[in-house]
Design goal:
The protein is an alpha+beta fold and 405 residues long. The protein has helices at residues 8-11, 14-24, 32-74, 89-102, 108-148, 169-182, 192-210, 216-227, 259-277, 304-316, 330-333, 358-374, and strands at 157-165, 233-241, 247-251, 292-295, 320-324, 339-344, 352-357, 400-404. The chain is rod-shaped and about 160 Å long.
């Protein structure tokens, strides 16, 4: 029967059956009993083989699924329509086919060239520009400090401004990330690990500059903050002896200082800020730039000492001042101005302004005082000069001097 043509398909399996029987130690006998034993032995052998191959296939499938998951983690966009299962193998094969057909490996060297010569170079240039701006701040502070040496903050002592690197963690991290993007960029490193690491570092910064999904506003605020080099520094003031440059006191803030000390320190910082912001030259007696500044209600509550200190600082900046101040400060401001304007409103409906040069004001005040020594009582109306109080300074009610440098 087995020799018939209809059994031709089965005959190709006979050799395999013979091998199984031989491994099982069964006699190759046509007897019915021998056939039963051979069938049982072959079945057991086949079952064992199927089990071992199934275990191997499962372990291999687990390895494949793990590799799929890692690949999808690294390339989420390209694998958005795939999942981590053996059933998706055809999709991964199709992706591999596209990569091979597009000949992407051929562009590896070009990518590394663009990364090192373009992207890294641009990041290095960006970092250099930020460092340049930070350097300009330090140079400007040095320029201001050179002039502050000539101003007595206290007798025999002067103030030096000190830029201190900001302790803000965001700025520290940003500057460290910039440096890491360009570290070893000129060392000739040509490994794939180097290129990929640098690409990831640059990509991280650029993604925050562009604004990550659902974090656009926060990233925009972060970008403005960390790229403004003015935020890279905090400032302190060091009071030093002029004779040996030894430090007398260090001011990180104005806490614990008296009112006069706070005023003087504030005026120093204000003058330094004006010089930096508007690039003013210190000590310019006839500046070629327009430096007009109006100070309203100036020095009303400050001490006379701090007021004089502020006016000397503003004088070194060459500022053209218009100072609106109460009468009680006119005696302090007088040596620093060239003209005086007295404003009053005796009837309560119209204000009057009388302008005088400082010399005219001083002459009229002297004449008024001499007249008071001769004439006993109140001065006659229309005398054209303000009355004087017991201290000898102008004291007409509601009279506000507007004085100008």
């Amino acid at each position: 029967m087995l020799a018939e043509d209809a059994c031709g398909t089965a005959r190709v399996l006979f050799s395999g059956i013979v091998e199984l029987l031989a491994k099982a130690g069964q006699p190759q006998s046509p007897a019915a009993l021998a056939c039963d034993k051979a069938e049982n032995a072959a079945g057991a052998t086949i079952t064992d083989l199927v089990g071992r191959r199934s275990d191997r296939m499962n372990r291999f499938a687990t390895t494949i699924v793990r590799a799929m998951g890692e690949f999808r983690r690294q390339y989420p966009v390209e694998t958005a329509e795939l999942d981590d299962s053996v059933d998706s193998a055809d999709g991964y094969r199709e992706l591999h086919k596209r990569l091979v057909n597009d000949d992407l490996p051929r562009f590896t060297e070009r990518f590394k060239t663009y990364l090192n010569q373009n992207t890294i170079r641009d990041i290095a240039g960006f970092q250099s520009q930020l460092n340049k701006q930070a350097g300009l701040i330090r140079e400007r502070i040095d320029t201001i400090n050179a002039s502050l040496v000539d101003v007595d903050y206290n007798p025999g002592r002067y103030i030096r401004l000190e830029p201190i690197p900001s302790p803000h963690s965001g700025i520290r991290d940003f500057r460290a990330e910039l440096r890491s993007c360009t570290d070893d960029a000129v060392s000739g490193e040509d490994s794939d690990q180097y290129s990929e690491a640098k690409f990831l570092q640059v990509s991280k910064i650029i993604e925050r500059f562009r604004g990550r999904e659902v974090m656009t506003d926060a990233d925009r605020r972060w970008t403005r903050f960390v790229t403004d080099v003015r935020n890279w520094y905090t400032f302190a003031a060091s009071e030093r002896y002029r004779e040996d440059d030894a430090e007398y006191e260090h001011y990180a803030d104005s806490g614990g200082k008296s009112g006069g000390q706070k005023e003087k320190l504030a005026y120093t910082i204000l003058a330094a800020s004006l010089a930096y912001q508007f690039k003013l030259e210190w000590g310019a007696t006839k500046p070629r730039t327009f430096r007009f500044a109006v100070i309203d209600e100036a020095f009303g509550r400050g001490s006379d000492e701090s007021t004089r200190f502020a006016l000397e600082l503003f004088g070194k900046l060459g500022l053209q001042l218009l100072i609106v101040t109460p009468l009680q400060k006119i005696h302090v401001i007088e040596p620093y101005v060239s003209a005086v304007g007295f404003v009053d409103n005796p009837e309560g409906n119209n204000s009057r302004l009388q302008t005088l040069t400082i010399e005219e004001y001083q002459a009229r005040r002297t004449a008024h005082r001499l007249a008071q020594q001769i004439v006993v009582g109140e001065p006659s109306a229309g005398s054209g000069a303000p009355s004087a109080g017991p201290s000898g300074s102008a004291s007409v009610p509601d009279l506000v001097p507007v004085v100008g440098r």
